[in-house]
Amino acid sequence: MGQRVLVVDDDPTVSDVVRRYLEREGFAVELAGDGQQALDAYGTERPDLVVLDLMLPGIDGLEVCRRLREQDRTLPVIMLTALGEESDRVLGLEIGADDYVTKPFSPRELVLRVQSVLRRAAPAPVSGELVDGELRVDVARRTATLHGRELALTVREFDLLVFLMRNPGRVLRRTELLQQVWGWTFGDQSTVTVHMRRLREKVEDNPAEPRRILTVWGVGYRYEHA
């Protein structure tokens, strides 16, 4: 079997369908029915990715995501959210989820999202370093440092920073960022807004007055060398 995926959902029908689709694509799948089982399974199985429902009995999905992030900042997490849970979805992105799929969803779509996130999380095949003053990004090792200290970036935050630094001075629309960084041809543009805010908190000396990641009001963002 291939890479390991932990699927966390209290609906056994959903879990079984997702498991079968993922296994068909060569993934090894572990199931958990609540938050505590998810945390226990992470401790023993060390999955390569977690598919995490927000609405769980006991420890809810947001708290599970928060605890997973405390243990492993690079672990890819895809959230499953109900259609009307926009505020929870945004909060999940705020605490470090890399992607989300809205219920009801196509199992095939979820498999494609899993493949996309894992592909982006894999080490880059070529070496290279991006430098902006005290901000240094090693693309091959997927690490970034600022003032000599390593930054705790999630998979999507790292990809977003690399794309910005490779396109300095360009005005980047949110739709373009969704396509280039997330691989989405459509989607909720608030995802970009949330990730930009989190990224600013990590790469700007003063996020309230950013020098690198600038907002172009009504359009998108522009990266400038500090």
Structure commentary:
- This protein is of the alpha/beta class.
- It folds into two domains: 4-121, Response regulator (Rossmann fold, 3-Layer(aba) Sandwich), CATH 3.40.50; 129-223, Arc Repressor Mutant, subunit A (Orthogonal Bundle), CATH 1.10.10.10.
- It is built from eight helices and twelve strands.
- A five-stranded parallel sheet has the order 2-1-3-4-5, sandwiched between helices. The chain has a four-stranded antiparallel sheet with strand order 6-7-8-9, with helices on one face. Strands 10-12-11 form a three-stranded antiparallel sheet.
- Strand 6 and strand 7 form a beta hairpin.
- Helix 1 crosses helix 5, helix 2 packs parallel to helix 3 and helix 6 packs across helix 8.
- The longest helix is centred in the middle third of the chain and has 15 residues, at 107-121.
- It is globular and about 50 Å long.
- The relative contact order is 0.10.
- The model has no long low-confidence stretch (mean pLDDT 88).
- Residues 4-118 form the Response regulatory domain.
- Residues 127-225 bind DNA.
Number of extended strands = 12
For this structure, what is the CATH class of the largest domain?
Answer: Alpha Beta
Strand order of the largest sheet: 2-1-3-4-5
Low-pLDDT ranges: none
Which class of secondary structure composition applies to the elements?
alpha/beta
Task: Please give the CATH architecture of the largest domain.
Answer: 3-Layer(aba) Sandwich
Overall morphology: globular
In CATH, the topology of the largest domain is named: Rossmann fold
**If helices are DSSP runs of H or I spanning 4 or more residues, what is the number of helices?**
8
What's the helix-strand series? EHEHEHEHEHEEEEHEHHEE
Taking Cα atoms only, what radius of gyration do you get, to the nearest Å? 18 Å
User: Average pLDDT, to the nearest integer?
Assistant: 88
Please give the share of residues in helix. Answer: 40-55%
- The CATH homologous superfamily of the largest domain corresponds to Response regulator
Largest sheet: 5 strands, parallel
